[in-house]
Amino acid sequence: MLRWIRQQLGFDPPHQSDTRTVYVANRFPQHDHYIPQKFADNRIISSKYTVWNFIPKNLFEQFRRIANFYFLIIFLVQLMIDTPTSPVTSGLPLFFVITVTAIKQGFEDWLRHKADNEVNGAPVYVVRSGGLVQTRSKNIRVGDIVRVAKDETFPADLVLLSSDRREGTCHVTTASLDGETNLKTHSAVPETAISQSVSSLEAIVAVIECHQPEADLYRFVGRITVNHCEEEIVRPLGPENLLLRGARLKNTKEIFGVAVYTGMETKMALNYKSKSQKRSAVEKSMNTFLMIYLVILLFEAVLSTILKYAWQAEEKWDEPWYNQKTEQERNSSKILKFISDFLAFLVLYNFIIPISLYVTVEMQKFLGSFFIGWDLDLYHEESDQKAQVNTSDLNEELGQVEYVFTDKTGTLTENEMQFRECSINGVKYQEINGKLVPEGMAEDLPDAVDSNLSEEDILFLKAVSLCHTVQISYDQADGLGDRQANGILHQMEYYASSPDEKALVEATKRIGVTFNGNNGETMSITSFGKLEIYKLLHILEFDANRRRMSVILQTPSGEKMLFTKGAESSILPYTKTGEIDKTRMHVDELALKGLRTLVIACRHFTPEEYIEIDRRLHEARTALQQREERLADVFSYIEKDFELLGAVGVEDKLQEKVQETIEALRMAGIKVWVLTGDKHETAVSVSLSCGHFHRTMNILELVQQKSDSECAVQLRRLDKRIKEDHVIQHGLVVDGASLSLALRQHEKLFMDVCRNCSAVLCCRMAPLQKAKVVRLLKTSPEKPITLAIGDGANDVSMIQEAHVGIGIMGKEGRQAVRNSDYAIARFKFLSKLLLVHGHFYYIRIATLVQYFFYKNVCFITPQFLYQFFCLFSQQTLYDSVYLTLYNICFTSLPILVYSLFEQLVHPHVLQNKPALYRDISKNALLSCKPFLYWTLLGFCHAFVFFFGSYLLMGEDTSLMGNGQMFGNWTFGTLVFTIMVITVTLKLALETHFWTWMNHFVTWGSIAFYFIFSLFYGGIIWPFLHTQDMYFVFVQLLSSGSAWFAIILIVITCLFPDVIKSVFYRHLQPTNTQKTQLNRNGIGISCLDSMCCFSDGEKACAPVGRMLDRMIGRCSPTRVGRSWSTSDPYYSNDRSILTLSQVEATPC
């Protein structure tokens, strides 16, 4: 029970031993002194909270916010001492904010729990009690024997025991882990491979000893001890014996494996970065502003306290005749009295810190996030998937992205290769209707075109069909002979080590040379109806140094020959015969088309040559020392003197509009890095085809570095080259091993090289390396905002590390989607997510934050000024009900609706002009200048409110028809009324996109204030102890002078804002403001719309034309509108779905 509680609270102790012992089928030793090891269960947890820690953890996170903590202190102060206002004025808003935020975050975490439950509740089969039992994934224990069928994912990290094949092998794809789609072969030890039934598996007596869990996907060290025929047999275990959670079983009917790592201890889960609270740049700016306003508050409180005691230095003000002190007050400590007065002033002015700002921001983020899911442009019809928002706290961060880190496989590409063209013996061919057609010939060729293929052409096709490591799956038969006899070869399915191999083998099959299979000893093909069987002698595996792979075969005639394929740079220099110049020219042409090119060659061996080759290969492969170096020497000896056969061009099918999306991001000032676990050549090819690398770009490489010194030399060489060729654009390619060396001691130099490159490609990256690269950019001196996007479990770490993480709903499972902040179906949707939604969210919330501080400065500054006229007696200017409802009711809805619907320009314009994204980059709207503007504007308006009202009433002026004068509460109510109207109309001036909801809440808020005040002050409420406001508001509104003062002061406050906006738009307009102006009309037309006419002309258009003439920029045209869908510029006069073309018509 104690262990379970500690697990729930996240305090489960680490393992004490460096190794773990796993008893297969949980057959524990029977002796008494054995103590079983404790292992994690098989649950995957991506949520932040549990039922037990939600309240304390959520409260801790919320009170880390300065405003929340501050209001908690104020609330406690109001409870402890006698203050001018009731504790309810601080406690009620604080409780409301904390509750709403907790509900929102709890709901989001409940969605994560729901997604986790889907994974943890997936059905699996385990061997228990002599049979196959169905259970849930979360119930798998370490030691359980698990059965996995074809195309299923492994529910835990399993050591393979047996498969449906006699040799105990199976094929898996790890695309969701490392991005590679090639089939990997895994094998069982011979002693367990023979156990293919449930009963024989349960009878196995075996013990596995292995290391404790570690994140490295490619490392596993262990051993298995099997009791076989009363003898203990010990076999080593390595990565080839381990089936990783998240990988998928292919080309194998079923396997049985024993669970060694489960749940959050699996390698897939260990590659997840621990989930942390992400905080947006806007929230950090809010905290900075709050600290500044806290300093202002403390200054005002200290100044008021000092001035109070300075004023009371005179005896007549210290103890006036109408307010005599008690004996206790006279004898009380002056220090305690000073502190008490300071705290009282602190409570009086505390509303300068807007607690309701946080709850409004939370509501805006939560409600605004629904627009992403509702956007039909982000809906993928083929897969029936819409965009998802997993964390709404980062909406505005979408408008601040400076770096995008993207995966390649499944994110930029569809992960589908297609054969396009080839060059055979110096002649270019295209595949048309399953036939090879020379380039330039018509498509309607005679059916006998294949009979015209020469021997060289057929040899080329055979080489392509034989030089690979492709595996075959047959759906309806068990043996190769049966498959052929039953005539179901057309049902075969190819599984390749890389997508290009599969595309090539499928292409030769369509043309007429069909690969039938490889049983480890022979390879068979059907060449235009004739079955040919080749003996497989040796495979020279692909490696990054050689950049080619070869097979040595014995032909049906008994001849020994080698077929090879690889990059042109690794084959053409070693070629002696063939059409070398023509082929090189064709390869360049194919590459310019964005195709991935491979060159095909062969070599014939004499019997003596083959004997020598076979001897050297055997010696190298059985060497215990320097095996890799010896094999490299032998390969170099074999792979030379080639006869060139030709070249092929294959295309990795990109997702739709990837190139346009990357280009749009570049125009928006966003740098794109591609981080992939794929091979160097494949990654570069895709980068070229998707526009990440341009053909004219100088590609620099930092690959295959062996030491720190070698890496440093190469980095300095690259840095020098970039500085010498600064006119040319550069692209950098770096692999995982070289990156590790670069980051170890040369981080600054590496970052300098990267920053001077237009595009960076990192290949052969482990999942945690991707996260390290993202962290490297995040923590650089510039502190840029980063975004990571990927589709597989190998991308989860970088998705969680980046400021914003986006998951692609692809073919590689849902791990990335479950751990992301946002999820979209295709990469092309990223442009609208950032350029439109990000732009809107940022300008909305930036204005919301600034406006909140502005209206609270307007609110509390008159209270501070009033103390100069009441002997700093801490008398409130406003009634306590007004203090409580100002931020909650009177001014809250207009800014909330504004922050949900505001659009400076139409979404289509933002997409068509990505450069507009630069206007809001680097937190431009929350920088020092806008902050000072809004703050000073608040103080200026507050001074006008207070002293404008004071000039009207301050000299005992009678404003009533009966000669009666106004009092203290009437003065405060007049100031409050002017303030509510002014701050509401100020927001109206800032609004560019008006909907019926904007009109309703703007004018409705003002009307509600008047109606509420009439009822509140016009009725005697029995439950109120005092009612200072009785009949005050009615009396105020009965004065014509008061109405005149309200109108005059409001205009005095707002008119300079209008003039300032007009001049700034004409003298220093931003790109966004330029776009707002009509193309055909130079004039203002409508700068800050407040309402719209039905014909599309806005109410302020005449004013705009008048101002044009005043400043000497009269336009000879006026703007009219006709509704159309043919223009990229749209009006914001009507519904977002209505398109409007702008035309010029004569005045």
From TrEMBL:
ATP binds at D407, K408, T409, E501, F542, K565, R596, T676, G677, D678, R764, K770, N794, D795. The keyword Translocase applies. It holds the Pfam family PhoLip_ATPase_C. It is found in: Early endosome; Endoplasmic reticulum; Golgi apparatus, trans-Golgi network; Membrane. The active site is at D407 (4-aspartylphosphate intermediate). SUPFAM superfamilies: Calcium ATPase, transduction domain A, Calcium ATPase, transmembrane domain M, HAD-like, Metal cation-transporting ATPase, ATP-binding domain N. This is Phospholipid-transporting ATPase.
